[in-house]
Amino acid sequence: MYYRNAQAAVVVYDVTKASTLEKAKGWVKELQRQAHSQIVIALVGNKVDLVEEGSEDDSVSRQVPLEEASAYASEAGLLFFETSAKSSVNVDSVFIEIAKNIPHEYLMNNRSGVNSGSSARLDLLRDGSANNKNSSNCAC
């Protein structure tokens, strides 16, 4: 029920635990089966900071090869990224690409309170500080 009318989904797995990719594949199947047919799904491998060269914890090794996850994402028609939530590597890119890939017609026809002929748009690349007096850099 929660994702049936979702326009996008982010399915995250841990690059240091192979079992999480298998679980992520299950969620992708569920979304493809239950969600809207035009849903944009991003597969995101997280925790790359733990496996990058020179990381603080050399005891952690990559269990999900980049090539394997990327090939699966391509085969399933998913956006694919590797990120580090801890160090914010590539996190913005995930959401920007999702927004770019949501069909504009779908957005315009499904926005509550907005006529489908409206030209209202959201500028994702705009500097939020111009209209935001909050010094925390929060865009909300």
Automatic annotation (TrEMBL):
Matches recorded under SMART domains: RAB (SM00175), RAS (SM00173)
Upper lineage: Eukaryota, Fungi, Fungi incertae sedis, Mucoromycota, Mucoromycotina
UniProt-recorded Gene Ontology molecular function terms: GTP binding; GTPase activity
InterPro entries per the UniProt record, alphabetical: P-loop_NTPase, Small_GTPase
Name of the protein: GTP-binding protein ypt5
Domain of life: Eukaryota
Keyword Nucleotide-binding found: yes
One Pfam short name: Ras
The UniProt record lists the keyword Thylakoid: no
Key words, A-Z: Nucleotide-binding
